[in-house]
Amino acid sequence: MSRSVVGAPMGIGRLRTAWKAAHESVPGVSVWTRRLAYAVPLVVLPSGIWRLPAVFDSGLSVGERLYVPMLSVVSELLAFTTIGLVARWGEVFPGWLPGLRGRRVPVGLAVVPAAVGATVLTVLFSLLTPITTIMGKTIRGDELPSDAPGQATGIASVWFYSCYTPLVLWGPLLTVLTVAYWRRRRGGGVSAAAR
């Protein structure tokens, strides 16, 4: 009996194999570096989950109802790209990219956006947000409104801070992973396993 009759279609097995091959760590990536890369999407996930109930807030316009889940999805997708700093697809373009498939990813194409992202995320979430929260100000310097999530008390405050505090790690983790990627790739070579 063919596999498609017994269980999942045969294409699923190929997709699973391709996914696993693309996301395997390349030689030279330590276990800890790989764990840090896979931790980044998990660090970002709680804030996305926290935002989703806002979609059902009766005071939001249609645009705001679309913006809130899209912000969560885009944040998670950006966090997921961090895995490219340790995986095969961060060194060699995947086969589904016409004209680029199998070609080496230029180091700068990964390092420059990652470094810019790490800088912005570190300044925003690791420096400005904690400082302004402690001072009771917005990033622009205005007083925090009384209905700001950080002004909540009780369980609402615990829920908010437990979901948003992990974002403090996003920039520093991305910084560590960017430096590790740059050091590994600066020799100019791509490992045989990544080809």
Describe the 3D structure.
The longest helix is centred in the middle third of the chain and has 29 residues, at 107-135. By secondary structure, this protein is mostly helical. The protein has helices at residues 3-6, 10-23, 31-51, 62-80, 107-135, 154-164, 170-185. It is built from seven helices and no strands.
N to C succession of SSEs? HHHHHHH
Overall average pLDDT = 84
Secondary structure: helix percent: 55-70%
Q: Uncertain runs with pLDDT below 50, 5 residues or more?
A: 1-5
Indicate the proportion of strand residues. Answer: under 5%
The radius of gyration over CA amounts to 20 Å
Number of strands: 0
Shape estimate: globular
Structural class: mainly alpha
N-end to C-end Cα span? 35 Å
Number of helices: 7
Most strands sheet: none
Overview in brief:
By secondary structure, this protein is mostly helical. The chain has helices at residues 3-6, 10-23, 31-51, 62-80, 107-135, 154-164, 170-185.
Key terms for this structure?
about 200 residues, mainly alpha, 7 helices, disordered N terminus
